[in-house]
Amino acid sequence: MHVIVCVKQIPDPALPGELDPATNTLKREGKLILDESDGYGVEMALQLVTAAGGGEVSLVSMAPNDEVSGLRTALAMGAAKAVLVSDPALSGADALTTAKVLGAATKKLDDADLILAGTESSDGYTGTVPEQLAEVLGLPSVTFAKTVEVADGALKVDRQTEAGYDEVSCPLPAVVSVTAGVVEPRYPSFKGIMAAKSKPVETVTLGDLGIDAVSWAQQIVSVDDAPEREAGEVIEDDGEAFGKIVEFLDNLKVI
Amino acid sequence: MGIDNIWVFAQAANGEPTTGTLELITKARELGATVTAFLGGDAGPIAGALGEHGAAKVYATGDLGGSLPGVAVAAAMQAVIDGGDSPDLIMFPQSYEGRDVMSRLSVKLDRTVLTNSTEVAVDGDSVTVTTPVFGGTKLVNSTFSGERPFLAAFRPKSFAAEPSGGGAAEVADAPVPDLGAAGAAAVTAVHVEETTGPKLDEAAVVVSGGRGLGEATNFEMIETLASLLKGAPGATRAIVDAGWVPYSLQVGQTGKVVKPTVYVAAGISGATQHMVGMKGSKNIIAINKDAEAPIFGVADLGIVGDVHKVLPKLIEALQSRG
Questions:
Q1: Minimum CA–CA partner of B296 in chain A
Q2: SS3 for B66-103, per residue?
Q3: What is the ipTM score, two decimals?
Q4: Is B165 left (phi over 0), alpha (psi -120 to 50) or beta?
Q5: Which residues on B lie below 8 Å from A243 (Cβ)?
Q6: Within 13 Å, how many C-alpha atoms sit on residue B57's CB side?
Q7: Residues A177-232: pLDDT tens digits?
Q8: In b/e form, how buried is each residue of A174-188, taking b as 16+ CB within 10 angstroms?
Q9: Residue B71's closest CA among B110, B104, B108, B111?
Q10: How close A103 gets to chain B, by Cα (Å)?
């Protein structure tokens, strides 16, 4: 079984984000890490390959400056190889362009039985790329999966809904987006980290993918500060602070 | 040209249009456009309510027969557009189905998408949407260029739903064309999770717990307090991911957006992911042992203290009031 996982390498979410004043897009120059929400897809892929009795997990990613730090994390978890698309022309690319580029990148690898992705990235969170990728590749898709099984060449997925969940069946190949918590991502072992250093990462440009030009039909026109919410009274609990809460609720007439 | 013709992707639950649907129809009407609702399913039960909120017409696919709405409704939309009725703007609720339909359609029509927006403005031929970033501290204003229709998705509760006094909408069929291989996924069973008390995103009081509760069993305090205040319990992504409570309780960017009269945050530090979902609450009470926690920056009443001590006393005090 061959599973391709789409992973994003993002600025560390623990650090304050910054917009480039010239383009108003998110600054991505520094070191990038594997998006935490992609760890679930990588883990799911590894488990499915094991359950299938063998196969391989590959990665596709799009990032500036030939950045591979986040890919190495996923390789250390157990993925076998990666294709990275890195091209200055993609700076500020929209989700549709990203889906087209990732779709082209999957063609650099053997045909996939299954393509996995997170539901949305933790930095841009447009949340459309997995389903767009499915349409680009002409594949069926199941989004917001909270469990994924493969049996007899078909997927069985529990798909999150507003009211609960749906059981969905889907033939392979297909694209599936997985929610956080679908599996517990493993920590890379020391052996895995060492092995990852020598695993193949093919870095390609748009030209290598046969894409001549990219453009997107959206522009950021301005960025404003949101109206700030004023902080109110903050008190230290002396054992009686619950009384303050009761008083507050009383004044609002909710009790 | 102007923005004269707006479609809204409409969703229904329990025989009624969802609140998110009515919010977008109301907003589209306020923008001065002719509003068409586009529904994956049968229009019969909800055409009246859609019309009352300002939809002049409803396109309905009829029963989807187990197809997932994303690919099926997008294909039906494309068929209507190819047939000559093409809108200037299509508004989608930022919901599971809304995201899927919008994603499929964006590729079919080769159009960009703007998502997670909370405001929309029309100026002549130009459409600008506003999207909060960095936990809602900055507002990014973006415009569409290129060919119409423009595709935009809006977070719940961005607009107020108000009836227009209109009559029932005209209903037109928009059948789903043959989907080929892309339509091969099928729903085989539907599960509805039982909930008691008010719905999380409609409750006047929401009491949420986070990692500061220490362990899963302490979430009972959150449920008890929520019940005493006739409110709904909520949770952070951290404790949902940890498996303490189901996803349906999650408040935040990837969960529910809530705007209750009172929001109680217990053992919650105030990660961006969470704040996006509750900052619009009218009053916020925060209890956290770390005085530096970001949650205190938005709280009207902040208690620096241990939730394991404050919550039991608060519960006892409320119980004794009867």
A1: A231
A2: CECHHHHHHHHHHHHHHCCCCCCEEEEECCHHHHHHHH
A3: 0.92
A4: left
A5: 317
A6: 13
A7: 998 878 889 999 999 999 999 999 999 999 999 999 999 999 999 999 988 788 89
A8: bbbbbbbebbebeeb
A9: B104
A10: 12
Annotated domain spans of chain B:
5-183, 205-321
Domain B5-183 indexed as CATH 3.40.50.620? yes
Length of chain A: 255
Rounded distance, CA A234 to CA B32, Å? 45
Contact yes or no for A226 and B137 at CB 8 A: yes
Contact across the interface for A170 and B186, Cβ inside 8 Å: yes
User: Do residue A224 and residue B141 have CB atoms under 8 angstroms apart?
Assistant: yes
pLDDT score of B255 more than 90: no
Mean pLDDT, rounded, for B7-26: 94
Chain A CB contacts of B94 under 8 Å are 127
pLDDT in tens, B257-307: 899 999 999 999 998 889 989 988 999 999 999 999 999 999 999 999 999
CB pairs < 8 Å spanning A and B: 254
- Residue in chain B nearest A176 by alpha carbon: B185
Of B103, B180, B301, the CB nearest to A248: B301
Give per-residue pLDDT as tens, B71-84.
999 999 999 999 99
DSSP 8-state code for residue A156: E
Half-sphere exposure of B225 (CA within 13 A, CB side): 30
Q: How far is B212 from chain A (nearest CA, A)?
A: 16
Which residue is closest to A122 within chain B, CA to CA? B273
What CATH number matches the domain at A2-209, 3.40.640.10, 3.40.50.620, 3.30.2130.10, 1.10.260.40?
3.40.50.620
Of the pLDDT bands very low, low, confident and very high (cuts 50, 70, 90), residue A128 is very high
Tokens 């996006």 identify what position? B276
Q: Say what the pLDDT of residue A22 is.
A: 82
For the domain made up of B205-321, the CATH class stated in words is: alpha beta
